[in-house]
Amino acid sequence: MQAAVFASLLLSAGVSAFYLPGMAPKNYHEGQRVELLVNALSSPESVLPYDQYYEKFHFCEPDAGKKAQSENLGSMLFGDRFYDSRFEINMKQDVKCKALCKQEIEISGEDAAFVNERIREKYALNWVIDQLPVAKVTADKKTKQEFYNLGFDFGHYSLAKGKRPAIEDAKDCVYNADVAPLRLAEDKSTKFQYVYSVTWERSDTLWSSRWNKYLTLTAASEPRIHWFSLINSIVIVLFLSGMVGMVLVRALYKDIARYNQMDSQEDPQEDFGWKLVHGDVFRTPVHSIFLSVMVGSGGQLFVMACMTL
Questions:
Q1: Residue 143 domain-assigned (yes or no)
Q2: What is the pTM (predicted TM-score) of this model?
Q3: Do 45 and 145 have their domain in common?
């Protein structure tokens, strides 16, 4: 009996646990910089995203120029475009009305009209702090329950000139990150300065549950479906498919009519049209093993990508 137990222990496999890359809690020292990444601007009323550093927005780029961050497959398919930023955020160090750019920004009337149009379309800024998306705190009108909406308003029919991130920390880790745009009165001047403030607040939220507020779904937070774009794409696909089908049917009818005429003739003639390719589907292709492996691997990768997303 002891020999059997000893043999089973030898055959048992060792088990070790580990954190996935980027999923472990990151502890910061006081004064250590917390990186803020910017993503593309998005809108629930439009399917067209804009880069944070699009020239007509006149956002300040880092001194060394914008640097794209590495992205995974899911980010690429969702159209994310992460760049570094000029924001200097340090652990447990509050910032009040710090200038973001080295000099004042001057915006032309044409660019101002472009910005106002994007604001009317409800475009939102999307930032990421410590792999946590910056969100806007919103309350449901019926239940009064607070939840997080990813991103925050670009402005309120005027150029958004100030951002005030509020970051909650506990045990020197980032647990929450929300932003409220500062509403400033419109000025006739075309020059302005981007300023920002950072406030650190103690939080009782556990690191393992810091995503709970993002996972709370309400009728207001559910993503809107762009029905017009969807129906428009379906109509175009059906129209083009119908045109291709009509061309193929007409070509097939012509070939069938010619085959019927050949049956009434005594002189043999060579095959043409569909008769030349009707048996190709049963013909073994060149390098069939390699083709089957590639098709099988491609199908597996496609299914896994769909399941991952």
A1: yes
A2: 0.60
A3: yes
